[in-house]
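Re: weekly structure request thread

Next one in the queue (403 aa):
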Amino acid sequence: MKRLGVMIWLWAGCLVSSVVYALPPMQLFVDITPPGGVLTLPAGSYAGPVVIRRPITIDGKGEVTVDGEGSGTVISVEADGVTLRGLHLTHSGDSHDQVDAGLLLAADDGVIEDNQIDDVLFGIHLRQANGNVVRNNRIRSRAGEPSLRGEGIRLWYSMDNLLEGNRISQVRDVLFTNSSDNRFIGNVIENSRIGMEFIFSPDNEVKQNRLVGNTSGIVVLYSNRVTISHNKLLNMPDATSSALAVKASSQVRVESNDIVRCAIGITANSPAFPENIIYLNDNHFAYNDVAMYFYGEKGGHIIHGNRFTGNIIPVAVSAATSARGNDWRDNIWDTYEGFDRDQDGAGDTPHNVYLYSDRLWMDRPMVRFFRGSPVLELVDFIERLAPFSHPELILSDPTPRIH
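Done, posted below.
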């Protein structure tokens, strides 16, 4: 559906006319839709930006495009109870300060589902928005350096939202700031900078998501009681990154996740207070450079029932005591050399990990390039065979499980 216009100008003393086309404004159709009404438009492209100030439903049936024409946010929702479905939102403005997005949701109890959002700076921005459902949307930022893109989904002071089944790619991050009690379930985040970042955002649930090929995976900062379970974090080999990073956060639960082919599986600091512990239970760490890295002076985390397979280094530390105080129990170690003579499923002797040549690449980061190489394997073998000094104990699992 297009509106025909005529442009007239004077050139070389002659009157010249030219036929041009302009998109019909979506705002006109929104303004004539009554509260509680359903707006179903003919297939085609419509001009934004659009502001919705009454509870309506817009159903594009996958055939309607709203083009922001490079200015501001494509659609802004300021009324509770709005449903947007089956729309293609594209071509937002490019201001980071104004948070130009495909969709701004500044209201409660809305449903945003089955939309395609692309060529935008930010994807979906929830601003003081509560009780919304954001489901089965496809979100992609515009081309460019990852740090110059916007967040695929951004929550700011927003609570009790369900974000489910979305596919997010080539964005900067997915960001939760001062946002609690949200559920992020069954989403895919790929080829972005930080998969997810929680800052001062307690009591969130992250479950059954797939994060692939991002620079970093999930970062939890100053956010208590976050639960991260049954996720797959894959292929994050950047030397400066971690699939999971937790700092200064209490009662975080990391359970039943698969963390595969990453530079570092999880990075965590030592708990400053007894309640600042992390629960790492029943996760699978496979083929990572380092499965777990702990820094600080002492441990205190609960680490039970995890499986370590094919990692170059299963546990690394900033100091010999950083992980020793953790509660290690019932983990499966592919490097365990003991036996289970009584066949109770647990090794007869503890699984001890000592500090050998691992220290080289931690003290000299440039050596990290040689991890897993024959040169470092030789140094490691010689140190184990005839150490120059008695190696320090990093950790002891008293009941290693036999796979």
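The chain has three helices and 40 strands. The CA atoms of residues 188 and 202 lie 22 Å apart.
Next request, please.
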